[in-house]
Amino acid sequence: MSAAIGGAVAPLSFTATPAAAEEQRGPQPPTARWDFDERTGTLTREAVSGSADPIDYVFDDARYKPDSDPVRRRGVRGRALYFDGYSTVVTADGPGKLDPAGGMTVDVWIAPYAYEHGIDGKPQALVNQHDPDAKTGFLLGLRRFGQIVFRLGFGTDLIEVGGAQDQPAAKGRWTHVAATYDPAARQLRLYRDGRPIGTATTPDRPPHLAAAEPLLIGRHNRPTLINGEFHANMYMGLMDSLVIRPGALDDATAHKEHAEQVEALPGRLVPRPDVTLDRTRFDGDRHRPQFHLLPPWHWMNEPHAPVYFKGKYHIFYQHDPLGPYWGQIHWGHAVSTDMVHWRDMPIALAPAADSVGPDGCWSGSAYVDGDRGPVLFFTGGDDRLPYRQRTGTAVSSYQADGDTDLPTWTMRSEPVTEAPAGLPAGPGTAWAENFRDPFVWEEDGVWYQLVGSGIVDYNGTQVTRKYGGTALVHTARRPEGPWTYRGPLHWNDLTAVPEPGEAWELPVLLPLPGPKGGRTGKHILLVSPWWEAFHPNAVKHTYYWIGTFDKDACRFVPDHEKPREFDFGEHFTGPSGFVTPDGRSVLFSIAQDRRSEQQHAQSGWAHNAGMPVSVSLRQDGRLGVEPITEASGLRGRRLAGIRQTSVEEANRQLAGVSGDLLDISTVIEPRGARKITLAVRACADGTEETLLSYDTAERRFWIDRGSSSLDPDVRKGVHGGTVDLDGGKLRLRVLLDRSMLEAYINGTNSLTSRVYPTREDAIGLRLTAEGGAAQVLELDVWRMNGAYDTAVAPAAYDPPRPADVDALPNHDFASGDLTGWTVVSGTTFSDANVTTRPDWGWGGPFCQAETDEDPAGHHLWGFNPNAGGDDATGVLRSATVVLGGDGVVDLLVAGGHDPDRLYAAVVRAGDGKVLAKATGRGVEQYRRVVFDLSAHLGERIYVEIADRSTGGWGHINVDDVNVPVRRE
């Protein structure tokens, strides 16, 4: 392996080579070339053959927004294609008339945005046509941290050359990558920007192409499937000028081609690539929030490390830049002057080989260290260690560049705190495998660090007892330490107080100011509960105590033994917090959208932050909770201003008020009313609506999402809690942001939820009261503006499906048995397979259908341990019906992956021909499949569920089989 020593950067030229060069088997004219110069469309042209190759892209046929083309940007010359990291892939027949026995060269220009973790040890494929099992074909790609690699198969060997690790394809700049096979020298060689960076010896036999495989650009031929939905091992970033040609490059030729091309570029400079993530990609998404914090693309989890510095607020967040799923954890970064209008900044922290977090940069906090600026404390993941988590620090370049946007951060290579085995913690020892989410502040010259963990007994090989969650305290005189362990701050005894879980995540300790901002001497301790195994309450709750912090003893003394739930909904989790310059204690949160993996893949994004809230200690000793005052700065036009009137009259005035981006504020005096309800996202006929209700007798406020969406794949339900009126009045503030709904009740409680209407007219408001003579003292409604500079695009909705159809009998197994279905053969299907179980007991939710006809959520789980389990086989058949409506059939499918022996199929009754079928993906969670059978309208059909597979994953799950049936 040889290291590069610099050199110019320029695209290669592909002119005909002289005869002498051909005799030396040097590089020859291409057999395939993709320039990606198209400006629109879902095809890219292969220049040698002239063929138009398809670009698969998530929004080619979008589910929740209008269709849109793949992203394109300026290239090195002409245009370049932006690969989004999880859905963009070009499929071609092959590399043309290429005979690799005489040598081959593959070269391409790339500007990566992010590196993949290297899932299952596979590279991110730039281009490949290979069969790793048969050891044939080729792959050019990137391994962890941008290391360039090239593979070539020789039938008996799959040889890989890796570039020098200190010469990666750098993020955010154009790099020219060339890989060559030289049969005369029996070598694979790699070049970066015209300079050699690696060699490998090949066998003394010719290589073999993998002609049966498609040539894929941007995705591995054998990608790992994540969560049954996402293809891993994909490239993210810009790509330009991909060329495959016969013959081999040598060092001199590679360098010469570079030098010549630099001369031909304007200004003799390679342009700076634009790899920023444009939010307009999601324009028209009917569910994506507009005035809440969320990343420009893909996945986020909890926002954390809020900090104020030099007139600007900074927030960071857990982020997977490569797709809308958990993994490859980075720190996203946004900046604001008011905590509600945000600008996207470059990624702050990314896994790096020489850092504390090579396998992930997980949650943490920030605090300002004088003129140096904020110091970030993060959880570093390192799978090489026996206990994979420890805390580290990062500092910005502020002292060098004076940029208060803080766009650049450097992680220190040494950890700050670690949890060795046997660290004493109350009744047991700290749970060393769970040591994360540092929360740091400085007070009176002492730096305090809380780290979420648990307390256990450990016998040297396994945990033998779990006592409960805790936050471990460390102190230091400066951020770099040394840090001294001070023991657990507080802990919950699982036997008496199980709600906060077996371990704590994201512990936050903040002073509680009084109603007018003065000191009270009280603090709030918030935690997110965590369980080792699947738990039905996981990722749903945040708990808190009010109490006193003894900073000398480093202990928290709660005023109440039982923790209190912070939010009445099931979507407020992952708290983080800080004290603002004016003395407010402000919390940020993640609002989990609780959608399925398939819905995340189809939408291209996952989760968003909640509105920041101020917490305080009221005069009555209760916690005060309100959205920050800056939220009103998002208001646009006032749509209603109702005063001193009856509910009936207020409702009449609301008849012309509608929207999906609203701020609603009301004060209502019940005057004997038993129940007061505000309906939002409501159709005029009530087909879809979300109800916010208060029961004066039970002192209970709740949200009813039972009719919030006609989509059977949307989670619904009722959530609420007990809250007193405020001086005999109901004070309600509602922030409505597409799918995001936050309600604040009487200044003491919040309720965070998600709603996903399907109808375009589900934007109305309605106020009702039962009994009494309720008086509306105030009711104001404002249209809300977006949180980002981009204009807010209207939400787009699908046209309605035909309604003049019947349904397949017992299509969703709502009867609780197999009524309407016939067991054709075998033992695997019976009434016992129809269940309402929401989860399979060890991993997560099924996400079965939820409809008005079947609120219990019956579904057919193909695994029956009392009837042979995975080894049982059989066939189940529906009633025979005539296909009608638009001929589109959809159903939920999960379970094992075996298309030939394990499937749900639509079959033509006349001749038994299978018209369409689907199998599972090796996961229990359902995904919806859609068959367009409009060509078979009027034909008699039935649905067949077949399980002819045995062994592991030898079962199939089915639910909500929607067949438009022609009415007789």
Automatic annotation (TrEMBL):
<keyword id="KW-0732">Signal</keyword>
<protein>
    <recommendedName>
        <fullName>beta-fructofuranosidase</fullName>
        <ecNumber>3.2.1.26</ecNumber>
    </recommendedName>
</protein>
<dbReference type="GO" id="GO:0004564">
    <property type="term" value="F:beta-fructofuranosidase activity"/>
</dbReference>
<dbReference type="InterPro" id="IPR013320">
    <property type="entry name" value="ConA-like_dom_sf"/>
</dbReference>
<dbReference type="GO" id="GO:0005975">
    <property type="term" value="P:carbohydrate metabolic process"/>
</dbReference>
<feature type="domain" description="LamG-like jellyroll fold">
    <location>
        <begin position="102"/>
        <end position="252"/>
    </location>
</feature>
<dbReference type="InterPro" id="IPR023296">
    <property type="entry name" value="Glyco_hydro_beta-prop_sf"/>
</dbReference>
<keyword id="KW-0326">Glycosidase</keyword>
<dbReference type="InterPro" id="IPR013148">
    <property type="entry name" value="Glyco_hydro_32_N"/>
</dbReference>
<dbReference type="InterPro" id="IPR006558">
    <property type="entry name" value="LamG-like"/>
</dbReference>
<comment type="similarity">
    <text>Belongs to the glycosyl hydrolase 32 family.</text>
</comment>
<dbReference type="Pfam" id="PF08244">
    <property type="entry name" value="Glyco_hydro_32C"/>
</dbReference>
<dbReference type="InterPro" id="IPR001362">
    <property type="entry name" value="Glyco_hydro_32"/>
</dbReference>
<feature type="region of interest" description="Disordered">
    <location>
        <begin position="16"/>
        <end position="36"/>
    </location>
</feature>
<dbReference type="Pfam" id="PF00251">
    <property type="entry name" value="Glyco_hydro_32N"/>
</dbReference>
<dbReference type="Pfam" id="PF13385">
    <property type="entry name" value="Laminin_G_3"/>
</dbReference>
<dbReference type="InterPro" id="IPR051214">
    <property type="entry name" value="GH32_Enzymes"/>
</dbReference>
<keyword id="KW-0378">Hydrolase</keyword>
<keyword id="KW-1015">Disulfide bond</keyword>
<dbReference type="InterPro" id="IPR013189">
    <property type="entry name" value="Glyco_hydro_32_C"/>
</dbReference>
